[in-house]
Amino acid sequence: MHEGRNRLIRIGKSEISNILNSLGYSENRGLKEIILKKYNLIYPKFKIGSKYRNPKILIPLIVYFYFRLHDINFKKSKLLAVSEILNSDINSFTLQIKRFLSKNYR
To answer: Which domain holds residue 26?
Structure first.
């Protein structure tokens, strides 16, 4: 079990580095750690078989929403170009967030 978890963390770190490098935030080690913590927190919330359990899908979505919520300047088109997500994935994930919040924050 630990081996699988460690593998996901390695993949996550690699994906985070690739995306942040592409967006011009390669030197921000604190940002990398924050995104990794969010990934580790959010990943287990999705059921096995969900497309959001794929780090190459989930991490770009976390980056997108984290940057938006914290007013960090980035180009959405660049994020879409360097990742495996589509604009429709962002919209679908938004619905997932709304459902999660409505269940857990009544």
So the answer is: 2-104
What global pTM score does this model have?
Answer: 0.89
Residue in 95, 85, 40, 88 with CA at minimum distance from that of residue 60 = 85
Instruction: Please give the tally of structural domains in the chain.
Output: 1
Give CA separation, 99 vs 66, 86, 92, 105, in Å. Answer: 18, 20, 11, 10
The secondary structure element, H or E, covering residue 33 is helix 29-42
CATH of the domain at 56: 1.10.472.10
Query: Is the pLDDT at 105 greater than 70, yes or no?
Result: no
Which of residues 27 and 58 earns the better pLDDT score?
A: 58
